[in-house]
Amino acid sequence: MESTGKRDIRKLTLTQLEEFFVAQGDKKFRAKQVYDWLWNKSLKNFDDMSNISKETREMLKANFSINHVKVDLMQHSVDGTIKNAVKLYDDKIVESVLIPTSKRITACVSSQVGCSLDCNFCATARLKRMRNLNPDEIYDQVVAIKEEAETFFNRPLTNIVFMGMGEPLLNYNNVIEAIDKITSPEGLGMAARRITLSTVGIPKMIKKMADDGVKFNLAISLHSAINETRSMLMPINDVNPLEDLSEALQYWYQKTKRKVTYEYVIWDAVNDDEQHAKALAKFCKIIPSKVNIIQYNPIDEGDFRQASQDAVDMYVRILETNGIIAKVRKSRGQDIDAACGQLANKNEVAQIQ
Fold this sequence. Notes:
Elements lengths: L6 E2 L5 H10 L5 H12 L13 H10 E2 L4 E7 L5 E6 L5 E8 L4 E4 L3 E2 L17 E2 L2 H18 L6 E4 L9 H12 L11 E5 L3 H10 L4 E5 L5 H7 L8 H15 L3 E6 L8 H11 L4 E6 L14 H13 L3 E5 L16 H7 L1
Parallel strand pairs: 1-2, 6-9, 9-10, 10-11, 11-12, 12-13, 13-14
Antiparallel strand pairs: 3-4, 4-5, 5-6, 7-8
Helix pairs in contact: 1-2, 4-5, 6-8, 9-10
């Protein structure tokens, strides 16, 4: 579905755009000019293409639309974090987050409207999956945060994480195309090493990434290295158990020689004992890895509670004793529901519950 009945021009490759201009009796190089306006300059309106004749701009408007996203609501946290409610061309909403620290500014972007994975601790899962995001919709989230970084912090965007709404590997082709645009000199020109894709761990797709030779970083939302516990937290583990994930990660490392990051939340009376910590340490030795222990961010008055500091310290001690790098990450943006696991348009949640 297109918002105007016209084709979204950003669905065309440069070659297809060249073919269009030639078919219109125009110069082939005109396509490169338009392509530069659309991607490198992230233009939202044909009328602003200043080096294109008015006649050509009118022709473009008659044939195409630019389905650019719109930041519908921007919320500022006391810690500097900014959360965007991003309206898509069909009026659906996703959320993205600007996370500032002293050394970097990170864009946390969404890949789907909602999510189909039903992780019991995550607000986004309550929305269910409505649709995948197009490559340009993912790209536009990054552009919006890049502009906010420059406007509010006078600093450049340095990193991108696919840790927002949705499971990136269930929208694989569009996510890869978006990353290609983000890293391309014709797009934002960001280095792939500055991008991290976070996934619950879908073995066949991890292998596909390895085969495709991707250059970005891989993070796994793990939360338990014991199947029974992980399946309770993340039902997808029933069909993609830790044994299959382990095999896929070994394949990943064999192909890429790049370590993986495990994202791990410790909950009170769920995984806060030595058995779980030792299981994690053992799992971490499958391939070179590091662990980010993430503070839990409550999404309601439910069953999940942040573990004690003693439990966190115990995990760090056991991991470090086993030679594994472990960092405790304090969440940011909690006061505006922008922290890990909290992203969900409140209006959408209210409609579903």
